[in-house]
Amino acid sequence: MNKKVLIVDDEPNILILMEQALESLEDENVELLTAKNGEEALEIIQTQKPNLVFLDVMMPKMNGLEVCYTVKKKLGISDIHIIILSAKGQEFDKQKGSDVGADLYMTKPFRPRSVLEISREVLGL
Length: 125
Known about the structure:
By secondary structure, the chain is α/β, with parallel strands linked by helices. The chain contains five helices and five strands.
C-alpha cells in the first residue's frame, strides 16, 4: 500500500519548496498531495487518509490548528501524523499545537533536509 504525504499551505512558494524537499520520497512509492486551505485539507484527509500531514497554521477558511483539532479530537483519527508548520515559534504557540493534538511543531523557515528526514522517519522508510 502506498504511503501518502499531504502538504497544506496557502503560499504557493512554500508548497513548491516542500514538494521539492520531499520529491525523492516518490521513488519509494510515497504519493505527495497538496491543499491550499484548511477546508480542502480536511476533505483530502478524510478521503485520501494520508499517513503524514504538514499543516500551515495561518490559512484562509480554516486555520491549521482548527484542522488538526478537527482531525485528532473531533474525528478521533489518531493514525495520521500531523506536523504543524508555523512562522510563530514561541512556547505559547507550540503549546497551542500540542493542545490540538499535533504530533510535532516545526518553525518556518525550516531546512528542507530536516523535513525529509522527519518524513522518512514517520513513514518508516
